[in-house]
Amino acid sequence: MKTRTRLAAALVTAIILGVIVLRIPLDRVAAAFRDADYVLFLSCMVPNTVFYLYWDTLILKVVIGWFHGDVPYGDLLPVRASSYVVGFFNTNAGRGALAAYLWRRLRVPFLELGGTVILLVLTEYTQLVTWALLGILGFRTEVTVSLLPVAGAVAAFWLVFFGYTRLHGKDWQILRTFRRTTPGQFAAIVLLRAPMFAVSLVAHYYAARAFGIRIPFAEMLTFLPVIFMAAALPVTIAHLGTTQAAWIYFFGAYAAAPRLLAFSLVAHLAFSFTRAMLGLLWLPAAYAELVSPAPARQPC
């Protein structure tokens, strides 16, 4: 099944990129790569990735502390960073590696920790929808109005899901975190994620100028969350293809397709590569954490 899934993802990636390449002259894409201001680009994107790592670890520490037990920030940081190395090749494997470390450290049921990781992923999607909704309300066009049902669908999903976990999820370990999560805690996690997107929004807004792309801030606020959600879909290899198609579709009115393609490729690869490099830097410390004797679980 995994082999079929990987082959399907490779096929989807090849089809999307193939359609894009057939429609966009490669010589103009090469020119966009050549003419870019990489000093400006890297000065925006590298700090964005570093901030992402440190803030993401902070959110992890807060949520794990709420539901499972305290883990010092300094212990979590190298393991969180190293999970990005695994995630560079397979996102779900990276999340699984993180859950495995927490299971060993806290000695709580693995599926329960898996449920907490899923909660973190779903709150990430929720905050992206929230940011997109803010942009939609402030920038109304035919395209943005068509995205309004997405926000309604997300709200309906959470109402149904939380209702189900409280009525039928009592004995399911993977749903225990959801059952224990209060509306206030859920909202707090979403709000905690807000600085990550705000920094990323500003970074992409100015980094795009390195490729001669000037997108109005309101449009960037509206559509960048949608692009991030498209990138998160587990249907392509390394999230390539869907991201580039989304950049060209949503921002085609503000820049030429070759420039958008070049920027989206470099931005996506720079973020993934920088995270992986940070993970490699922290890998020795993470290895020490993984091979050291697991401490006795402290009472919550």
Account of the protein in words:
With 300 residues, the protein is mainly alpha-helical. It has one domain. It is 80% helix and 0% strand. The protein has helices spanning 2-23, 26-35, 38-67, 73-89, 91-106, 110-138, 142-146, 148-168, 176-180, 183-207, 217-232, 242-251, 257-291. α3 crosses α4, α4 packs across α13 (257-291) and α5 packs across α6 (110-138). The longest helix has 35 residues, at 257-291. It is globular and about 55 Å long. The mean pLDDT is 81.
Task: Give the SSE layout.
Blueprint: H1 2-23, H2 26-35, H3 38-67, H4 73-89, H5 91-106, H6 110-138, H7 142-146, H8 148-168, H9 176-180, H10 183-207, H11 217-232, H12 242-251, H13 257-291
Helix pairs in contact: 2-13, 3-4, 3-10, 3-13, 4-5, 4-13, 5-6, 6-8, 6-10, 6-11, 11-12, 12-13
